[in-house]
Design brief:
Shape of chain B: globular
Radius of gyration of chain A: 19 Å
Oligomer: heterodimer
Helix content of chain B: over 70%
Helix content of chain A: over 70%
Shape of chain A: globular
Order of helices and strands of chain B: HHHHEEHHHHHHH
Number of helices of chain A: 13
Strand content of chain A: under 5%
Number of domains of chain A: 1
Largest sheet of chain B: 2 strands, antiparallel
Number of strands of chain A: 4
Order of helices and strands of chain A: HHHHHEEEHHHHEHHHH
Largest interface: A-B, 45 and 45 residues
Number of strands of chain B: 2
CATH architecture of chain A: Orthogonal Bundle
CATH class of chain A: Mainly Alpha
């Protein structure tokens, strides 16, 4: 039976989340805890990629500094843990507020520019925070900062890999749902309208700057949550979370999966990180293969993987 | 503040600035004319340094290695332009960022495959390895002065090339309206390849000259690439004059800031605070400078394009 084009995206999303939900079962059955950690990391980066898609895909803002919010979220958790704050809601709450505040500041300055300058100024701010983290000798500097305990939320024990995994999965699903709501709202339409035709948006009484800034802050906040999750998963924070190549990787996930599709970036994160793992088992020089693959994707597969999966309608 | 130390640090800053100018000049031309964001420019710098090390090992001579490394980097640049970048000119910035990001991964790994993971070292020519007394009691390495001199020569050459020659006229015309230039019968693709080759040669020169001062290793171009971007964004994209002013500004602010900011903070705050905040603030200084300049002049100091 042929599946109609309208159902395909929905089926694909359910299949994706169904498979992700089965990972702990597989890793438990075959005693492969490695897969549990790998896919937990994949989902955290998927969260970061979805957050970037809001500004990159829907807002047309090429932020080359999203690793900064990962880092801010991660360091908030790390620093609080270092000072003996064991409450996870406080740790994650502070991470979210801190990344929102940083995104508000960076967005307010960066959005005054556009095009090439915007790419570069977001990159510069991320580098600034990177060097700040390197110079924080009290919190490990270059070597990073280990986190003693992951902590608990109510009945959920985050030290248990499976429980943490499902919590991340739920947060990813919730974020995706919320992001769809945001994109479908008047706010989301205005944001996307300003991307396609700024002058027309202004003529319609929409001030693009404000819409973009709000989107930027939402995006930075979600990415900060991803950073808090990453610090919790790895029980470790280091400046390398904010390396500029990390920002590049998240952009790759969004474009590989398909811009302005929200689900696409999740698939992009899965494919990129799993591909990295596979290539790394084949050869230590796996970047020699990954680099040209990226170039080929850019040259020949512009619409991203989601375009294939969901059919033309969502291209 | 010790004036001799200030002079030495200012010269170090000028040397860094001149180095950055060699990279920024090519990058800003490629930006301005082809409208291409080339993240792989830092890779050409790295390739220049590696080729310098390889040719020095082969010929045993610094000058011969330099004379071989620069044209070889030019050829690598032209090959990259013909194979990959040419297809990215009419794409948006995002595609260019991604495609050239792929090139960085490729080149960083390629040098590891060819020359191994360990860092290489390039010997300074013995005639230039000494110091010269600028002021009584202020010795300064000759080699760094040579780099400053070479950079200023290149700046003068570029200024002559762009403002006084027919090629320069075409470059400027191509920067303001490439379609019109093509319509007037100029082979714009050839012009693009030439400009890219020139930029690659300058990046290779920077890498080859910097090689004796640094260890030659994979990903050595990444950090300097970001500094170069800061330079061309401050200077204004497409402007060689802007690149020069901004390169010297960034070089001096960064070097002098790192040397004196911690000392300055120690005068104001207590020792503990100053020791913690000084290095942090110093390493953030140029990014703060860039953010401040862009906040007031969103197109940089000399820029016209967006």
């Amino acid at each position: 039976m042929r599946v109609s084009a309208i159902d395909r995206p929905r089926i694909a999303v359910f299949a994706l989340f169904g498979l992700l939900a089965l990972v702990p079962v597989y890793s438990g059955l075959f005693d492969q805890p490695f897969y549990l950690t790998l896919f937990a990391r994949v989902m955290i980066f998927a969260l970061a990629a979805v957050s970037l898609d809001l500004v990159l895909g829907f807002g047309g803002m090429v932020s080359f500094g999203h690793a900064a919010y990962l880092g801010v979220g991660a360091y908030a958790v790390g620093i609080l843990a270092y000072h003996g704050v064991d409450s996870v809601p406080i740790r994650w709450g502070v991470a979210i507020l801190a990344s929102a505040a940083v995104a508000l500041f960076i967005g307010a300055v960066s959005l005054r520019t556009s095009g090439m300058y915007f790419i570069m100024i977001t990159l510069a701010f991320a580098q600034m925070l990177f060097y700040l983290a390197v110079s924080l000798k009290a919190y490990g500097g270059d070597d990073g900062l280990p986190i003693a305990r992951r902590g608990t939320i109510g009945p959920i024990d985050l030290n248990n890999g499976t429980q943490l995994y499902y919590l991340i999965l739920i947060l990813l699903a919730a974020t995706l749902t919320l992001a769809h709501r945001v994109v479908g709202s008047r706010f989301g339409r205005a944001l996307e309208g300003a991307k396609w035709n700024e002058r027309r948006a202004i003529a319609l009484g929409i001030a693009p700057y404000r819409y973009r800034l709000v989107a930027f802050v939402i995006s930075g906040t979600v990415c900060g949550l991803a950073g808090a999750l990453l610090a919790t998963l790895t029980s470790f924070v280091s400046p390398s979370y904010m390396a500029w190549t990390r920002s590049g990787e998240v952009i790759v996930m969004v474009v590989l999966g398909g811009m302005a599709t929200l689900t696409g970036p999740i698939i992009g994160a899965v494919v990129l990180l799993v591909l990295e793992e596979i290539l790394a088992t084949l050869t230590i020089h796996w970047m020699l293969i990954l680099g040209p693959i990226l170039i080929l994707v850019v040259l020949f597969a512009r619409r991203g993987l989601w375009g294939w999966i969901a059919g033309d309608r969502h291209g | 503040m010790d004036p001799v130390l200030l002079l030495v640090q200012a010269l170090n800053g000028l040397q860094l600035g001149v180095m950055l100018f060699l990279l920024a000049a090519g990058l800003t031309l490629v930006f301005g004319i082809m409208n291409l964001v080339n993240l792989a420019h830092g890779s050409l710098y790295m390739v220049g340094a590696y080729l310098m090390a390889a040719f020095q090992g082969w010929t045993g001579s610094f000058v011969a290695a330099l004379l071989l490394a620069v044209p070889a980097t030019l050829l690598v640049g032209v090959a990259v332009e013909l194979i990959v970048l040419r297809r990215l000119y009419d794409r948006d910035h995002l595609d260019q960022v991604l495609g050239t990001f792929g090139l960085i991964l490729f080149f960083n790994e390629l040098v590891r495959v060819i020359w191994g993971p360990a860092a290489l070292f390039v010997a300074m020519p013995s005639a230039l390895s000494g110091t010269v007394a600028l002021l009584p009691g202020a010795p300064y390495p000759v080699y760094r002065l040579v780099i400053i001199g070479a950079g200023l020569l290149v700046a003068a050459f570029l200024s002559w090339l762009v403002t006084q020659t027919r090629t320069g006229m075409l470059i400027r015309a191509g920067a303001s309206n490439p379609i019109m230039v093509a319509a007037l019968g100029v082979d714009i693709r050839l012009l693009f390849t030439l400009v890219f080759g020139l930029g690659a040669a300058l990046a290779g020169l920077a890498g080859a000259l910097a090689a004796p001062l640094l260890s030659v290793e994979s990903a050595m171009g990444d950090g300097v690439l970001i500094l170069t971007f800061v330079v061309i964004v401050i200077g204004g994209i497409g402007s060689i004059r802007g690149a020069f002013v901004a390169a010297v500004l960034v070089g001096i602010v960064d070097t002098v800031g790192r040397a004196f900011l911690p000392i300055l903070l120690r005068e104001i705050f207590n020792r503990q605070v100053a020791n913690a905040a000084g290095p942090a603030l110093a390493s953030m200084l140029i990014y703060l400078l860039m953010a401040a300049i862009l906040a007031f002049r969103p197109r940089g100091l000399f820029g016209a394009r967006g």
